[in-house]
Amino acid sequence: MAGGASKEQFVFTTDRAGSQCEMVLRMDPRDGVLETSRVREAEVLKVARDVVPVPIVHYADYDGTLLGMPGLVTSFVNGVTKPPEAGSGVSGLGTGFNAEWRAKLAPQFVTHLAAIHRINVQDPRLEHFSVPDRDPRHPALWEVNHWSRVWEEDQQAANPLIAVTENWLRANLPECTEPVLVHGDYRTGNYLFDAETGDITAILDWELAHIGDFHQDLALSMTEIFSCHRDDGVKLCSSLMTEDDFIAAYERATARKVCRQTLQFYRVLSVWSLAIMGGATGLRAAKAQHNHQDILLTWLSMVVYPLSQEILTILDPEN
Question: What angle do CA 43, 200, 105 make, to 5 degrees?
């Protein structure tokens, strides 16, 4: 299957007693832009299916005993990630929608995000998920610690901005008293929709799901590389709506109040983690030739430069 930059994906058809069914094999490469757990991905797909459209998990090989590498077999879901007339880059970068498509997709985008954030984080099916509730700063701290460790293990060259940003994040940890299930990569490019009706048919790419602060999903959707601009220059989050409209719609759907200071923290965290994925983990996999998309991963490493500029802009918007 085309699309994506982290997993090997194959469509195949089963034939049982004359009944055919399309399925998807989603399998880890030797190395990729992300190192995540298929156990957790399977768990969250089963729980999320109660509230949002997601592929059905039919089989999981958590340790690669039969597949050679960890993988999942799920149902095949019909849909597209962009309308036929829209342009886009790889992995959802640069996807654009006209006003008609935005009107169809934006309300669903917010509704599904609100539903995800209402999932009970104590659900026993989320067996391999930890709830960061011992200290209100733990949701933020756990994320900073995770990506700091990834950078330490995968960096290919020193980058002062990565270190400076980490210091800023540790000095500005926000509090979160009600952790939610965070999708972790909620944006245009990671959902399918019907090309005729515009109905969202599946929310995809749950591998970064964790329990944390709801602001993190909002922040990721606001990242520049996953957004576009209208003809008047106004930025559209995930190519769907303005930042103010997105925040207002989310607040109406959830009765939560978005804290702009907390949102700023998670915007920096999101961009910082993306820079680490592209400029460290993905590049390491490409250099080792442990990935079927080594050329793509090498190209994606260049995203560090616009991401670095975005970090500086968020922290110092006046300059």
Answer: 125
DSSP E strands: which ranges in 194-265? 200-203, 210-212, 228-229, 235-236
Asked if residue 192 lies in contact with residue 81, where contact means CB atoms within 8 angstroms, the answer is yes
Contact indicator for 220, 187 with CB cutoff of 8 Å = yes
Chain-centroid distance of CA 83 in Å reads 20
For 28-77, the pLDDT digits (tens) are: 877 766 788 999 999 999 999 999 999 999 999 999 999 999 999 999 99
Q: Which two tokens stand for residue 19?
A: 């009944």
| Distance between CA atoms of residues 233 and 104, nearest Å | 21
Distance separating alpha carbons of residues 171 and 263, to the nearest angstrom: 15
Whether CATH 2.60.130.10 fits 78-315? no
pLDDT, tens digit, for every residue of 165-174?
999 999 999 9
Give the up-direction half-sphere exposure of residue 124: CA atoms within 13 A in the CB hemisphere.
Answer: 0
Regions of the chain with pLDDT less than 50: none
Rounded Cα gap, residues 20 and 12, in angstroms: 10
Cβ contact 180:121 at 8 Å: yes
Q: Count how many residues are written for the chain.
A: 319
d(CA 269, CA 272): 5
Q: Where are the domains of the chain?
A: 78-315
pTM of the model: 0.92
Spatial distance between the Cα atoms of 42 and 61, rounded to a whole number of angstroms: 10
